[in-house]
Amino acid sequence: MFGNVQSTEQSSDHTADAFALQVQGLTKRYGDLVAVHDLNLQIRKGEIFGFLGPNGAGKTTSINMIVGLLSPTSGAVLINGKDRAEVPKRSIGICPQELVLWDELTCAENLIVMGDMYDLPRAVTNERVHSLLAELAFSEKAKTRVSQLSGGLKRRLNIALAVLHDPDIVVLDEPSAGLDPQSRLLLWDFIRSLKGKGKTIILTTHAMEEADALSDRVAIIDHGKLLQLDTPGNLKKTIGAGDVIEMQLAEPEQNETVMNALKSVQGIQEINEVAGKITIRALNALSRLPEIIELVDATHGRVSDISLRENTLEDVFIYLTGRGLRE
Predict the structure, then answer these.
(1) What is the dihedral angle through the alpha carbons of 228, 187, 173, 19, rounded to the nearest 10 degrees?
(2) How many angstroms from the chain centroid is the CA of residue 270?
(3) How far apart are the C-alpha atoms of 122 and 42, rounded to whole Å?
(4) Same domain assignment for residues 51 and 115
(5) For 224, which of 7, 36, 61, 315 could close a Cys bridge (C-beta 3.0–4.6 Å)?
(6) Closest by alpha carbon to 266, among 280, 251, 253, 252?
(7) Which stretches of the chain score pLDDT less than 70?
(8) Alpha-carbon distance 291 to 296, whole Å?
(9) Torsion angle, CA of 145/94/316/229, rounded to 10 degrees?
(10) Number of domains composing the chain
(11) Which domain holds residue 130?
(12) What letter does residue 10 receive in the DSSP assignment?
């Protein structure tokens, strides 16, 4: 259905040194099963890159190949223009969806152990432990054993462990899973602060609101293939079911006349009458509002109320990947 469309972005003059990570023809086969097929990505330095797909779409396999946990059947991964195998492992920080913590150690001790694993000078480690505990708002838990923490605090500690060694690229796999709204907003601010420090972040999430709020660009993958890659704004304007305009006329008996007139507006996908209101669905509907209002005036109709619900990233995601549940 999508042909070879992989990006709806306009071409740019980005040179190779502008990319933190380049994925070239990445493929992974398990016998006859192709988990990832010819994946090509160019992730820019300092961007938050959303990597989305349903369960079983090939996201985890792709990420594992990108970070070096899994060998590809074919293809290459370049980090800062160099083959991944030639780049120090400390260049990447990984926060897996599963919690990886030492339960009988305190929060500070967990971070110190991680610093020792990366051979950081203890003074550097101590400074970063203090800073990360403050940024993620659990300094008062520094001496608390992990086994005594709430799920949300464990999640935040897991994230701190991923960035303690100051990597250039940070991979966050479902980082906000199980967090309450306040903790989620704190996490979003922290992720934005990483971007502000020049870090490149790869974010996998099933929360479309999160991907929309944080991502500079979004890639949507399914059945091992890249379907679309663009900014959230462009995806919402050009793909999916479209924005919804609800319009109430002063004289509802004119609804049918107005609806017939609106059929001439290019880009309108659906026009219906629901509970006495005219509902119009169209991609980038905001840009079509002047023409819609003009046509209503031409039929001598009068708009008494009008509202617009913009197309969401979730609309785009469902349009591309379907409504079927995945295990």
Answers:
(1) 50
(2) 29
(3) 36
(4) yes
(5) 36
(6) 280
(7) 1-16, 323-327
(8) 9
(9) 160
(10) 2
(11) 16-237
(12) P
